[in-house]
Amino acid sequence: MEGLYFYCIRKRSGIPSLLARGIDGKGEVFIFPYHELEAVVSKVSLEEFSSDEIQKKAREDLSWIKEKAIIHEKVIEEAMKRNEGISSIIPMKFGIVLKEKEGLEQVLNENYERFKTILEKIEGKQEWSVKVYLKNREKFEQEIKEKSEAIRKKEKEIASLPEGMAYFMEEELKEVTSREAEKELNNIVDFTFESLKKQAADSAICKILEKELTGRPEPMVLNAAYLISEEKIEDFKREIEDLNQKMQAKGLSVEYSGPWPPYNFV
After folding, report:
1. How many C-beta atoms lie closer than 10 Å to residue 35's C-beta?
2. CB neighbours of 196 closer than 8 A, spacing ≥ 6?
3. Would you place residue 156 in the very low, low, confident or very high pLDDT band (cuts 50, 70, 90)?
4. Quick one: angle between helices 163-197 and 149-159, nearest 10?
5. Helices 163-197 & 233-248 angle (0-180, nearest 10)
6. How confident is the model at residue 18 (pLDDT cuts 50, 70, 90)?
7. Which of 176, 183, 10, 3 is nearest to 98 (CA)?
8. Contact 9, 39 (CB under 8 A)
9. What is the pLDDT of residue 16?
10. Where are the domains of the chain?
11. What is the pTM of this model?
12. How crowded is residue 187: how many other Cβ atoms within 10 Å of its Cβ?
């Protein structure tokens, strides 16, 4: 028995189909028109892609989930790039399967006005990701030491003490420096997010990704998303590049990527 795997919604584009293969690697991705909108879907086996089966795979076969999630994302990105107005799509979360054409029509009918409102909100805008990494904590803490009068005073005090007493004071100094560094890091993260927010139609703080997910040795300290009008994108990029130059001296890096499907703003 077949169902319809649901990727995204977009305004009617007049494009009959996409080049990508569907989530099962076989079925053609096609367009299902509905008034002023269209759904991007492909046919799938309900046995393989039922809600229960997907949940089972999530528990037992993460490689299958990863493979299908990549296909899901590629189809959405192609739908976004082939549509006039690059961000004017509403991406669906992974794993939405409708049993029949009537089920899709019902979803479109019940959510029609909401979908139109969302598409109007993101028309002519793109989602961009900004991440800040602490690349060199030692360098960052050294700058804190140089700027902090309290820390410099403590260091002078330690230098005048006998070796045995100095050891305990040095441990205390490390704790103070670490606390000051965390405080300054939070200030920098807030400043970065708020500075870039001024350029955006909307913005969102996202979950910090652990090293296992980023594949990088340095910790992520900010993960943000911004909805940017197309005419402001180059200015937005330049501001990030300027911020990155300033942050490099502190042991931090500011990186951007996009455009992405606007998951954070729909």
Report:
1. 10
2. 130, 203, 224, 226, 236, 239, 240, 243
3. low
4. 170
5. 170
6. low
7. 3
8. yes
9. 57
10. 2-123, 126-265
11. 0.81
12. 10
